[in-house]
Every structure is written in structure tokens, then in C-alpha cells.
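Bug #77: duplicate submission created two jobs. Keeping one. Sequence:
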Amino acid sequence: MNDFCYVGAETLEIMAGAEKYNAYLERLVLKYIESGKSGNITVLDIGAGIGTFAKKISTKGYQVHCIEPDLQQSEQIKELGLLVDTSIENIDNNSVDFIYSLNVLEHIENDEEIFKVWTGKLKQDGSILIYVPAFNVLYSSFDKSVGHFRRYRKSRLIEILKEAGLCIEEVRYADTIGFFVSLLYKWINKGNGKINKNSLKFYDKYLFPFNRLFDFLFSKYIGKNVFAVGKRI
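Kept job's structure:
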């Protein structure tokens, strides 16, 4: 019986209100789904949470299958009219065109082993996008409170993709401004790991939009997050 319960459920609800940040992630996913693909595309959202992104992606005409082990959250996804399973073992190997996983891999202790399971679900020429927190120097009470084992550097993502036998298409940092905001949070937070909803809204509305410029200039070197795209060949 699946009794998994995600400790960061409250954070998911708060982050659902970060409209500009979520819109950026939606555009990022769509960019790589649509890159060089045509026809009926099967998409897998691993660690779908409450369906924030799966619902948006599905409105673009894609068949999105969600994987969410938290039973309460998987029920919320069902209520959105989306297909959901609690285990990736229910997905056939070599059956998926595109996989995306947003802020999930850092929750998995044996990340390299599990990543190979994920990529085994891809068809030949299928692609995967993973987006995770970057730089262990930013690891804070927030990371600990939501069950993060680690944060990543580009070099580590490259290793994981190569070990899975993928051709690397892109690896980049993202959210340059967020790097410095997260560093400040680490210094001043009292240790409860909570996100202030009003502070998040302020950052999302007034600071995050400037990342388009700053990421263009500095994402090769720094960012609050890092993402990688790989293709199964």
C-alpha cells in the first residue's frame, strides 16, 4: 500500500500563486516538448504535485500522464480531469515521447538510480527535462523542511544524464536574482523553513521578471535553479 505523504504540501499550495515563476516554467517545458517533435506526443509529468503544470500543459493539446505518489495530491490531480498514477512502475518502458520533472529529483536519495528508471520510459529519440535547485551553498532550513537531500551544479546533472546514456542537449542555470534572494533568506531565516507568502508574491511580481535579462547575461555561471535536457538515442 502506498503511504507516501509529501512533507512540502503546504509549500506547493503557496507556490501555485507564483504566477510569473510558474508561467516561466510552463514556457520552458513547452519549448522542449515542441522542439523537433510533431504528431501525437505523450508527456509524462513526474512528481506532478497538485497538477499545477500538468493542467496547463494539457490545455495545449498534449496528453499528459502524471506520476504523483502522494495519495491526497494524486486525488487532486484526478479532480482536474488528468490521468495519474502513484508509481512510475505502471508506465511501460519505451512508451513516452517527453518527460519533465520540476523540483523533484532533489527529494530522492538514490537520484542517479531512479533517473535511469525514468529515462527507461522514453521512446528512442524521446527527451527529458529536469529542473532542480542549484548550489549547495544555498541549502537552507527551507530545503531541509521540504525534504531536499541536496542541490545541484551543472556538472552533476551532466554526470547523471551521461550515466543514463542520454545525449545532452542543454544544461543551464536559471533564476539569477533568486540566487541572491535565497542566500539572503539563508542568512536571516530563523530556522523554521517557512516561505512568507507576501514576500513570495513581491518577488514574483517585481523581481522575477528581471531574470530574463540577468539569466541571459549570467545563467552560464549562476542561478537559484539549474535545468538539463537530454535525449535518448
